[in-house]
Design a protein that fits this description.
Length: about 250
């Protein structure tokens, strides 16, 4: 069997002000073509887990392999290079509203450019052309010249996904990407993420608060409880009792 594109082992993390660890020996593997959903109550460690993977926060212990590259312990230029293989999509699309849609997508390529490109915010024509292709992937190539401020919530999130694809990652993380969307737009986004896994071979790991959507779209569902993995099961095997157990004693956020 192929090695996982995302391989996290025994990850632990604490905040100085917290009474208990945020993460406790969390392990998770996601392979190419696989869409994994993470469920859990507020404060169960889901978002911190994703931030540890991209090293927005530094875990206390554990191993984080992304496309074979060890992320734990990296700093500086080494960390910057390693981050190219993993992209993170958040609840909010965080687009530059005054810029065009295609320019927003092209900014995803800046991590692959020399530092002077990044500092100047320059967008070479070759990257704009690639950005148009990524917009086509998410079904929004016809909106490329529009300002991002004109987009609906679902469209903006699709642009955020296209921007992540412009980074050319192998692992795609999404932190509650449909939390602010209506049901139809939420279905569209999750269908897109599943397609990117199956057709493009990405390893997709998505935090959700909607168990029904997780079961409907993901290949596997992982339940977080109090900073630990409570279960890791194929979607068809996830019962209501398993889901309910995650939310019985919701800790403070």
């Amino acid at each position: 069997m192929d090695e996982p594109l995302l391989d996290v082992r025994d990850l632990s993390m604490s905040w100085p002000s917290a009474e208990r660890p945020v993460l406790r020996n969390v392990s998770l593997r996601v392979r190419s073509g696989e869409f994994v959903a993470i469920l859990g109550a507020n404060g169960s460690g889901k978002t911190t887990f994703l931030k540890c993977i991209v090293r927005l926060v530094t875990p206390e212990s554990g191993s984080i392999l992304v496309a074979g590259q060890q992320m734990a312990g990296l700093t500086g230029a080494g960390l910057q290079r390693a981050r190219r293989n993993v992209a993170l999509i958040s609840q909010s699309a965080n687009l530059v509203k005054r810029r065009s849609v295609v320019a927003n997508v092209a900014t995803g390529s800046l991590g692959r450019r020399p530092e002077w490109w990044t500092s100047a915010g320059a967008l070479p024509q070759s990257e704009l052309e690639l950005a148009s292709r990524y917009l086509q992937t998410v079904g929004l190539e016809h909106l490329g010249t529009q300002r991002a401020a004109t987009l609906s919530g679902g469209q903006a999130q699709r642009v955020a996904i296209a921007r992540a694809l412009a980074q050319q990652p192998q692992v795609l993380l999404a932190d509650e990407p449909v939390a602010n969307l209506d049901p139809e737009a939420a279905d569209d986004i999750l269908h897109l993420l599943r397609r990117l896994a199956r057709e493009d071979g990405l390893a997709v790991c998505c935090v959700l608060h909607q168990p029904d959507l997780a079961i409907a779209y993901a290949d596997r569902v992982v339940g977080f409880s109090d900073g630990s993995v409570a279960f890791d099961a194929v979607s068809s095997a996830v019962s209501q009792a398993m889901v309910d157990s995650l939310y019985r004693s919701e800790p403070a956020a």
